[in-house]
From TrEMBL:
Pfam family for this entry, one: GerE
InterPro entries registered for this protein in UniProt: Sig_transdc_resp-reg_C-effctor, Tscrpt_reg_LuxR_C, WH-like_DNA-bd_sf
Keywords, sorted A to Z: DNA-binding, Transcription, Transcription regulation
One GO biological process term: regulation of DNA-templated transcription
Protein name, entry field: Spore germination protein GerE
Keyword Disulfide bond: no
CDD domains: LuxR_C_like
Amino acid sequence: MTDKKLFECPPKQLYKLSNLINQGVISLDDLAEIIPGILHINSRKDLALEYISKEGCQILRYSLEELQTLGAAVFEKHQCEFTRTITYPKLMKEIAKNDPNHVIPFFQDWQYEEDERPVFHFTSTKILNDTQLVSISLFPNRIEYLTNTVNRLFGINRTYDKYFCQYKKLTKREKEVLDYLGKELPRKEISHMLFIDEKTVKKHCENIYRKLGTSKRTELEKIAQAFSTI
């Protein structure tokens, strides 16, 4: 994929990530662990880093507290003049349009020391809320992996939302049986795990199917995985 195509096809999955963060479905630290690249939250006012993943701290050679203290001044120290005087003003102009659905892709650099060559990152950013931006910085060849990961996570979230009310109607024992069904265990093995008769497991399964409103085992497994993950 060429640089031009990267700009023509920004990773729209960043929109899904911002929804997950705003809904409180998953914490920033947990989200940062399952996606490639560097997750960071920046101030809309001056792009100062307010959060960055542990991996990002390691790459930048700063702690999160140090970056928060330095604010936007860190860019003066570690980024080239082109990034600071050309790229960032263009970025701020796009942000000023106040379009929460717009994902803005761009390249930026990071220079550890004056005598070292700068490291370039491909970054995608969008408005998270009234005061913050959510961004992911990564190497271009990792975008496809990011897409697959986020789509899987977002699929789990949709299943959770769809069956939340029905799931609350299950008894404690039915939830335990459902959890084992999600692990693709047969009824006989579930009966051994829960120390109950296999006929009792069968009855629990019938109740689970009825209460959740589905007759498909594959759908039941998706539901079980959604409620054991979130």
